[in-house]
Structure formats: structure tokens, C-alpha cells
Amino acid sequence: RAIASRIVVVPSTGSTNRDLIAQASEAPAQWPHLSVLITDDQTAGRGRLDRQWSAPAGTSLAISVLLRPDELPGSLPVGAFGWLPLIAGVAMKRAVTAAGARGAELKWPNDVLIEGRKVCGILAELLPDASAVVVGSGLNLTIGADELPVETATSLQLAGVEEPDPDAILAAYLDELRVLTYELANAQGNADGSGIRSLIERECATVGRDVRIELPGGRIERARATGLDEGGRLMVITDAGPAAVAAGDVTHLRY
Ligand code: ATP
């Protein structure tokens, strides 16, 4: 079973997302749908809002996957891109669970947590010509307690998976991601597009919880998260009433 069209592993690089965006823009024919670029030594990783993502060399995986909406069965309009980090989060949650991690949770909009700590962060970015999307994830495999980049982080090993097998996790992740992106694309052109939405709503541990939303400029809203809307935005109820928040409008979300 093909899990990817092309897999390139590099010993070290600044950012796999940045490289895949540049290379797929320059030579599109060489980077088909489901091309993957990986390293276990990413030296200048980024999170949302250009925040730093870092991990000691050899202790984690940076995995960037190229998705070409034209090659998916239905369609993937720009309005559906908000689903991609969530779908990747579901895929990663399933992959680490299959590897033996217990209690992995998807936190809206782009993290996988174990016991409240971040084991994986995800960043989806459009190519400059908007022809494709790169979905990047940083997965902490064997970072030790004394070398965590931030105190809110964890690794699979710290969470009890003694020897995480990168190949098995990668294969499971790519397999899940391939299936879920097909389902998402199918759902867009389908009157019953609610299937994938309710699946992710069920899988997303943020739904149903009280959240503290930090907005640009430092304003803080307290709300109850009630669901996800058709674009993957978080539906909340605040004192002022119902609202939908987009990932791009939130600086931090805390429970
Ligand atoms: P938040 O971290 O507030 O939940 P976020 O989920 O949107 O926000 P991102 O901006 O996507 O986070 O990721 C960057 C943040 O992740 C950094 O600011 C840092 O706190 C944290 N971080 C950096 N490297 C790692 C890592 N290897 N593991 C876990 N967390 C990390």
C-alpha cells in the first residue's frame, strides 16, 4: 500500500515546511501530491505566528507533507484549509496511540497533547501561488525531561513509550492523513459534508471545555467551546453570546 508519492529524508535542515514550499514551487512536477520531506534535526522550526519550534537533534521528527488539492477526488476550497491542521492532528493522535501512547488528545487548532503537554505541533501553509498546501508537524519522540524546549512540552518517551519507532509512526501517520484528506475533499463537494466535521468534532478534546482565548493585543476572552463550524473554526459561547473563532485570530488558547 502506497503511503506517499515520494519520501525525502534529510539529515538536517532549518525548516522542512520552508524547504518543501520552496522546492515544490520551483519544480512542481518533482513534488506530487503526498510528497514528504523529513528530518530528525530541524534547526529553525516555526509554529503559528512565527513562533519558534525547537527540539534537540535526533530526538524528534519534523514531517512536512505536500497536498495538492487538484489531485484529491472532490475539492479543497480555500475555506476548507482550516481543517487541515485538525485532520493532521487526528492522524497524529491515532499514530501515536497505535505506538502505545495513552491519553493523546487533539487540542484546537493544531496540537496533540498527552497529559496536557504538547507532544506534537502542526503548521499548515499555502504555497505562494496557492496551488498546494504543506502540512508540517513536529513530533517529540525521545526528548528527555532535562532537555525539553519549554515546560509545556513532552515526548512520547516521557509519556511512557519506551522506544518509539519513527518508521512505524510515520507510516501510520501518513496512512491516516491520506485517508482523512480524501474524506475531507469528498465531503466538500457532497451534500452530506457533515461526516468529517462531526468526526473531528468528536476527536477534538477542546470541544465541550471551558477555554481562555488570548486575542492579538492581549485581550482575553473566557468561553465555553461548543463545536466546530463548517470551516474548522471553534464555536464558542462567551458572555456576549455565540461566536466562531478562527485559528489565525487566536494568539493562545488555554484550558
Ligand atoms: P500554544 O503553544 O500557546 O498552545 P500554539 O499551539 O498555537 O500555541 P505554536 O505557535 O503552534 O503553538 O507553536 C509554537 C510554540 O510551541 C512555542 O511558542 C513553544 O511554546 C512551543 N514549542 C516549541 N518547541 C516545542 C516542542 N518541541 N514541543 C512542544 N512545544 C514546543
Question: Could you describe the 3D structure shown?
Answer:
It is built from four helices and 14 strands. The protein has 255 residues and is of the alpha+beta class. It has two domains: 6-201, Bira Bifunctional Protein, Domain 2 (BirA Bifunctional Protein, domain 2), CATH 3.30.930; 207-254, SH3 type barrels. α2 (84-98) packs antiparallel against α3 and α3 runs antiparallel to α4. Residues 47-49, 51-55, 110-111, 118, 121, 138, 140, 149-150, 153, 252 line the site of adenosine-5'-triphosphate (ATP).
Write the layout of secondary structure elements.
Layout: E1 6-9, H1 16-26, E2 35-39, E3 45-46, E4 52-53, E5 60-67, H2 84-98, E6 104-107, E7 111-114, E8 117-126, E9 133-140, H3 166-188, H4 194-203, E10 210-214, E11 220-228, E12 234-238, E13 241-245, E14 252-254
Parallel strand pairs: 1-2
Antiparallel strand pairs: 2-5, 3-4, 5-9, 6-7, 7-8, 8-9, 10-11, 10-14, 11-12, 12-13
The structure holds adenosine-5'-triphosphate.
Short description:
The chain has 255 residues and is an alpha+beta fold. Helices cover 23% and strands 29% of the residues. The strands form three sheets. It has a seven-stranded mixed beta sheet, with helices on both faces. Strands 13-12-11-10-14 form a five-stranded antiparallel beta sheet.
Low-confidence spans? none
Helix content: 10-25%
Report the CATH topology name of the largest domain. Answer: BirA Bifunctional Protein, domain 2
Q: What ligands can be seen in this structure? A: adenosine-5'-triphosphate
What is the approximate shape?
A: globular
Q: Could you name the CATH homologous superfamily of the largest domain?
A: Bira Bifunctional Protein, Domain 2
Strand content: 25-35%
CATH architect. name of the largest domain:
2-Layer Sandwich
User: What is the helix/strand order?
Assistant: EHEEEEHEEEEHHEEEEE
Strand tally: 14
